Here is the input.
Amino acid sequence: MTSVKQCINQKSNTIISVRSIDTVEDVLILMRDHRVRAVLVVDDGVLVGIVSQGDCAIRVLLPHNNPKQVAVSKIMTANPLTVTFSNTLEECMAIMVFKHIRHLPVVEANKLIGVISIGDLVKSIIELQSDQIKFLETYIKGHGV
Here is the structure.
């Protein structure tokens, strides 16, 4: 089983975040510039929430609110579910499926480390399956004999 630590170590250490007092426009700009679909909300070094593209669309754009005037605190998911380095990717997938979410912040010893997305999980699973297929092909061929 692959752990969150192994997955997060393959990613950049950049944490894309906003403060809860920032505007939804700030979030949308970060999402566009960094090509991400969720941004962590961090106040004074503490994870307080997460905001997704869906949050922005459904809670701000669809009701025709002005993203320049809506604070992140009004639309974020406060106190989001988190995982640690010791969680497996299978556990993360189960959480995402049952809770209908696509991103899990990673916290270790009360320190925000990063975020795991559904895309990260799929990529890791594909890589693992690819390695298993190569092993089986080598085994079937008799190690090149």
The helical segments are 4-9, 24-34, 53-61, 89-99, 118-140. The chain has five helices and six strands. The chain has one domain: 4-140.
